[in-house]
């Protein structure tokens, strides 16, 4: 069967594509810029935009992986009901929804539909730590607020593997899975793990909330996105730092550790 993956060039979407290929599935990868996308041979690459549902080719597809945001900077996707109607009309049977931190029109439409749906709620992606790569290479330092905050951050490869298993094998309809790694780590602990992976000490400098806000705004992030990220880090909900076994329940193996992720990406920090 053919499975359609939206957001296919993103940190999680690319992993979903790779994991589906490993399971022997045919993949239709949807991206906003098909000419620049690079995927393994055999992947059908098409250009589409979730904000324009008519551009998403659901024809001939039995499973779909969808996002709840409209692209960069966590913008809310408002076209969810139309996307779901089109998927149902095309004969899609199974769908996964990648949560973005809030209840969305897409999630509401999917969970009220006739589709075999599964909502995936990953906490912080381990790949978000790549934002530290440049200052680590240049100065050997990481500057972040809220040293006390802990996260059960999840390997993006595990997100992809869970989505692929659900879409290819079924059996998870009507369920919502929080996806975490195997441990809860503070930012200083994450920094120490990366330091061990690259063989040198990295300094952690705790920013004030105002410093962090100015830095994110200066990097071009919209104010509402900055507010969301600051609030998430300042007062993280329990599901953000509580380790659960959903990855192992679905895949039959433990979730991958941050130490493993750091070794895989050590080159980015050197």
UniProtKB/TrEMBL annotation:
Residues 2-102 form the NmrA-like domain. This is NmrA family NAD(P)-binding protein. Pfam families: NmrA. PANTHER family: PRESTALK A DIFFERENTIATION PROTEIN A (PTHR43162:SF1), PTHR43162. InterPro entries: Ergot_Alk_Oxidoreductase (IPR051604), NAD(P)-bd_dom_sf (IPR036291), NmrA-like (IPR008030). It comes from the Bacteria. Coiled coil: none annotated.
